[in-house]
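[User]
Protein folding is very new to me. Any chance you could explain this protein sequence and its structure tokens? I have pasted everything here:
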Amino acid sequence: MKAAVDRAAGTTGASAGASATAAAQPAPRPTWLLLHGSGSHGGMWRALLPALAPGPMPLAPDLIGYGRSPLRASAALSVDDELQALAPMLDAVGGPLHLVGHSYGGVVAAALACARPQRIASLTLIEPVLFSVLQRQGADGHWAYFDAMRRAFLARLRAGDAEAEAAMAGFTEGWRGPGSWLRLPPEVRRRLIGQAGRIGLDWQASFAARPSPDALRQLGPRTLLLRGDASPAAMAGLVAALQSAMPGSGLRVLPGAGHDLPLTHGPQLARLLQTQQRRFGRGMGPTQRRRAAAPQALHQP
């Protein structure tokens, strides 16, 4: 995370006397902020970046406990902790954000957009695990699917290290279907087993995240929701519930894609993101900025 902050600060650094000539300075450059999901890291977006150039500056940080970002000593983790870790980088870059989040990264992205709506030019959520919207929209059957996955995963973790592989096998097959765990290369399975404890924290943080319904509604017209048609039916239900909670949001379903859509359907994703950037490239107008600057509750019980 520090390296990303240092790079970002280098693009917007100013001398102590900059405020006297601020009116003469060009507007801050827009930024792509790409947030990965559970068991991954910022490098998952690397293959996508050439297709997004030229355009906004891309930043793909490691979320807490992934890649080069250390895991904190606390036994708990919240989405607010992720926002605090991202804050120095966001303050360094300034300017509008084209915000993209996948899975758990989609939860963080939604929370960030609710907390800083005036910074958000566009929001793209790729199968975000915002489980709370299922309960709000009355989709209890789909909520139960994910809750059962979570309970089984955490129960295996509590049983000790010997059950970590079973936890990760259930997690993987819950998203990708039967047999998908053993189809992964051995080195990938070993890496995921080592991250099982961190993924357990993601489950807890995702279920606890409850973005403000009012903030989500205001973000709707700037939001694109993406899912694959090969993902679990419960994810289709979650994305449908989220679209209802975000009036004006767009929805695209990619044929043949599953939950790993950013990795398997990069060219299609890049085209959709480029369309988002062209549509909202200049961010919000003055009226939208005034509305977005109005106080919003980040979470609602």
Observations:
- The first strand starts at residue 31 and ends at 35.
- The two ends are 30 Å apart (CA to CA).
